[in-house]
Structure formats: C-alpha cells, structure tokens
Write a structure and sequence with these properties.
CATH class of the largest domain: Alpha Beta
Strand order of the largest sheet: 1-2-3-4-5-6-7
Radius of gyration: 19 Å
Largest sheet: 7 strands, mixed
Number of strands: 7
Number of domains: 2
Structural class: alpha/beta
Strand content: 5-15%
Oligomer: single chain
Order of helices and strands: EHEHEEHHHHHHHEHHEHEHH
Length: 327
Amino acid sequence: MQMAIDLHVHSNASSDGEFSARELVEMALVAGLETISITDHDSVENVEAGMMWGQRYKLEVIPGCELFSQYKGKFLHILGYYIDPLHPGIQGLCAKAAEDSLSRIDRQIAVLREGGFYLEKEKVLAQCSHNAPLYSNYAEAIFEDERNKDNPIIKKYRQMEMGLIEFCRDYMCMGKKYYIPQYIPSSEQVLSVIQESGGVAVLAHPAVNLKKGDTAILGELVEMGLVGLEVFTSHHTEEDENFYLDYCQKQGLIYTCGSDYHGFFKPNVSLGDVKNNTYEVVEALKAAWKAQTAEKEKAAPGAVPGSVPAAASDAASTPGSDTRPEE
C-alpha cells in the first residue's frame, strides 16, 4: 500500500486553526497518513510539539511553516519545509508579524465598521484564541454577528461554499477595499530566511494569488531559491493542477500536495484529502533539502547553516524514531 501524506496542515498555532499538534497527529493516523507537515501561518509555535507527538505515535512530521509575503504587488504564501523552528531569522519574522497584527486590531475593526459591518473586538479575539488575528478572524466575527444577517454582501458570501475565504480575498487582502497597511515581508526576504534556517521553500496554492500568465514571477522566485509549487491542493481546479504540474515538469521543480486543512474554518476540507499525495513527494523534497544543505556546507566548511533540530532530522529520515525533544 502506498504511503499517503499531507504537507499543508494548520494547528491552533494558526489563528484560524482548530486542533492542537497532538490532535492533528492522532487524526492523521486515523486517516491512514504516514507523513504530515504542520505549516502554521507566520508561526512555528507547534513545530516541536508536532515532531514530538509524531515520534511518539510513529508518524513522520516534517518541520514546516507558511509565511506570508509580497512580491510585485502579489500576496504570496510560501511554505518552508525542514526548517529549524528555533532559528533566529524565523523566530524574528514570526514575532514581528504577530506584533504588527495585534497592533492594528482597533484600526481594522474601525475600517470594517465604517464599511457597514457589525463586529465586536471580543469576538475577533475569541475567534483567534487571543492570538494575533488574521483576516479570517474578522470575517468570522462579522458572519456570526446576527446584526449583519440582512447585509446583502454577507448574504451573498454566506451562500458560497468557501464564503469566509472569498470575503477575505475580495475585501480584506492586500489592495482591497478594507485592507489596511500592515507588515508583510518581501518574498525575497522570506525565501532567504527559510534557506538560512536550513529549509527548502515551496509556493503554496499558486493559482490563488497568481494568474497563469505570471510565469515570469515564478521564474524570479525560483532564482531566489524556490524549489517547488504546491500543485495539488483544495484551492486548485483540475485546470490549475494541470497547468502548474506541467510548469514544474518543464522547469525541473518539485510538485507538492497539501489539503490546507484548518478544521472548522474550512469545513469542506478534510485532512489528507488531496490528490497525488504519495511518499514520492516527500522523497523529492528530502532530496532537495539534503542537496541544499550539502551545497551550503561545501561553501562554508565546518558550518551547519540553519541546522534542523536532531529530532526533526531523525523524524524526517526515520519515521517513528525514539529520539524526541524534551516536553
């Protein structure tokens, strides 16, 4: 039987994620998965816990993250795999993003209220468990407020399968009507930090934020260190999958697969429910990671750039290793 994987999973370290690292590992086993990667939004808080529980339950957990970035006016999500979650570059970037998010809560609520939406700060904070809120937490607070039930905009999006997400994309993301300036690092900076931390970078769900004509942007990201595209994802149509798979094959890039599982925020997305999620994808990522590490060590003999914690390295190569970080 082929080993099934899911390389894009969110825990409650993401403000819109539902489950703890332990719960995700247990759910992955029930779903028959062999490998997952917990890739939280601008957070590595649950990476070590995920690896620990993976080792305890004999499930391979690849240390990962999903970092927001911007490049040439595009809002891009970049996945990092085999990262060192304790690397100061990763830690600093995540801390700065959280600090900025918390600092603009009142301004974001004011802009949305001026737009005619009812929402309360307490509800926003409850949605994100008092962590740094994302667009989705504001949208959830709006959708759940009964005072908005007759708002034609909310009525429209409530009828959509992924209405919350579509509302965020149409009204709150970079350049949209209710967007307010915020800290979003450049894609170049994010790619550099992922590499410095010892990881390899993959562009998440490219069809969400790029047009098929944006191949020049993809090429520039590859020059900066991008090694692959998330081709198979809950966000892509079959046409998207075919286009980006063909691009990867022609450009010699790795294609990956991930459900982008969140729990309640995306109720129609199930853990592990993604096409072509075979272990060959992990093997390709692992090979790119090892090649990149070897190249850096060759360039700087004796240095171990962004070395992944021992437990992560062991878990990546040997699922179920007994070595684990302290609880």
